[in-house]
Every structure is written in structure tokens, then in C-alpha cells.
Amino acid sequence: MRNSYTNILAIILKHIGDVLVTTPVLTALKGAYPDSRISILVNPGTEEAIAENPVVDEVLVLDRGSGYGVFKKAWHQVQFALKVRRKKFDLVLELSAGDRGAILGLISGARERVGFDPKNRGFWGRRYFFTKLVDKDTGTQHMVDYNLALVRALGIEPSDKRLSFCWTKESETRCRRLLLNHGIRFDDPYVVLHPTSRWMFKTWNASGYAAVCDYIHDQYRIPVVLSCAPNQVELKFTNRIIRLASHKPISLAGQLSIKELGCLVAHASLFVGVDSAPMHIAAAVNTPVIALFGPSGEHMWGPWGDGHIVIKKDWDCRPCGRDGCGGRKVSRCLEEIEPKEVFEAIDHQLGSKG
Questions:
Q1: Which of 57, 76, 97, 124 is geometrically suited to a Cys-Cys bond with 116, CB 3.0 to 4.6 A?
Q2: Cα(105)–Cα(92) distance, rounded to whole angstroms?
Q3: Burial grade of 235 (CB within 10 A; 0-12, 13-18, 19 or more)
Q4: What domains does the chain contain, in order, with CATH numbers?
């Protein structure tokens, strides 16, 4: 007989994409314990990935005491840990596989604390902070199934493994207005090109992306909408794509929140990009994806679900998980992808004109 829980905390102290691929865990928990209250603890800046999710009752954002001196920072973290304890959780799932999450899980006082077996990683004794440990398996599993292993350890077999991403009416209104400024409606066909990642060694070359913009225009007469984070490195890269393209894409680079980007992608005919949070958002909102993969492993991080295409080199050296070849921050396995490989994927997704 399965235990019953009424106040559940999921801890995922990683990046936006990591948070998105844990959403099937939350769906499974709510399905198994429909009367439970579910909270999620995330890093600052990632809360938009999970906000508005209907199965989540509360989003807690970790207070790291940033901007303060050593002692005040430590005091802020202690206060936050005590705040977590006062919530009186009875089940904690630690999905980050990190020291901080393990400590907060223990401090919570939850009678059941489930996490991944650290083996020899992290501080000594971390494994004893949990009441139930699950062996890691990233060799063959996608991260969605990797995370769901914690749910299965509770005797729950997930019936719905879809990603979930939601946005507000305000986000939809602003996104609609930005598109209309360029003469595009949500009902019109358009392609979203999100060429960058916060780690630029995961990014293809600007000339290749420019060729993709031109190909979509020439073959399909569909506008390409360019997006990226409001980061100077990414903005500079996207501006180079615009300069190189003969048929200029519509640029919303740096102008969209995560929610607005999700809304934009949800109405698109196709998403083209790399291993990044926006790629996971596209999969979550059921937009067909073409994803270019380099040093990261598509078996773990590829777009989740059916109907997506991953373009990668079948080289023995990849996936290596490194930040480029020889420490140069440039990945040959991405650089040597030919535009024609992407064109073929576009034809498959949009339908041949011939």
C-alpha cells in the first residue's frame, strides 16, 4: 500500500531547461495525491518556467543572499531554510542531485526525503540525508525519465509524461502586439529561430543560420522570427545573422520574457534552435522542433515527444559534454553541420514545395 502525502516539496536548483523537464514529475505527484499541496523550490531567474502550472500551489525561490557580505548572506540563507521548515512538508523530492538541495531537504523535517544516490559525489554523508535513494541512470535515459525515477520509487507509475509550460493572458497580449507590429497574426504561419544558448559552444554558426532564413523565405515564403535572451553576447550573434541574411528575419531578440517566448513558439509552425531552454519550451507547447546538437547528448536532452528532428554528427567523440574542442569554446561537431542538412529537415517539417 502506498503512503499518502498532503504537503509535497520538489527541489530543482538548476537552470530553466532543467526545471521544464521536471514538470512530468509534478503532474505524476498530483495524479497520485490529488488532494496534496505541491510546492517547488527553484533558483532565482527560473521561476517563470514553472509559474502558472496548474498542479503547482506555490513556487519558492531560493534566497541566496546575493549582494550581501559573507555573514549577512549566510544569515539570509539560514532564514530561508527556517522558512522551508515552517512549511511542514511531509515529502521532499530532491531533483537537483546537489548538496544544497540535500541540506534543505533535511532541514525541511519531511518524514520522507527522496533523492538520487550521490555515490562518491558531493560532501561525505550526503546519502544519509535521504530516507530513500535512487540510482542514477543517465547513460540511456532522457532526463524526463531520469527525473521520473524518483516518482517510481514511491510506487507511482506516471500516466502522463508530457512537459508543461503555461503563460499569462498579459504575456499573450504583449506577444500578440509585438507580432502585429510586424504584420503577423497568431493564425499566420511563421518559423521561430532561436539560434543561441547561454553557453555559446552549443551554438551553430551565424552564416548557417542566415542561410536557413533565406531558404525558408525562398522555398516557403514564411516569415522567420528571430529570438534570443537579452544578453549582449547573444544579441551580437543574432545581429550578425541579420546582417548576413539576404532576406532579413523579423527580430524580437532580447525583447521577450520566458512566458512571452513560450506564447510566440506555441503559435509557430516550426521552431529551429539548439539544445536550450527555448527548445524544451517548444516541445512542451507541441510545436515541431528542429534541434542542432553538438557536445551535449540528445539521448538525455533532446526535444521531448514525437515529431521532432535532431541534427547531429555521428562522431565517436560526441557527445563529450565539453565546452568546445580544445578549450576554444567552439564545437566542431556543430560547426561542420552543413546548411543542406537543416534544409532537408525543414522540408520534412514544413512539407516539400515540389
A1: 97
A2: 6
A3: middle
A4: 7-152 (3.40.50.2000), 169-350 (3.40.50.2000)
Instruction: Tell me the pLDDT tens digit for each residue of 186-231.
Output: 999 999 999 999 889 899 999 999 999 999 999 999 999 999 999 9
H helix intervals, 113-257: 143-152, 169-180, 206-220, 232-244
In sequence order, the β-bridge partners of residue 112 are 91
pTM over 0.90: yes
201-283-354 Cα angle (round to 5): 90
Intra-chain end-to-end CA distance of the chain, in Å: 59
Pair 272, 206: CB distance under 8 Å: no
Give me 268's grid cell. 509557430
Residues whose CB falls within 8 Å of the CB of residue 194, separated by 6 or more in sequence, listed in order:
226, 227, 228, 261, 271, 272, 273, 274, 276, 278, 279
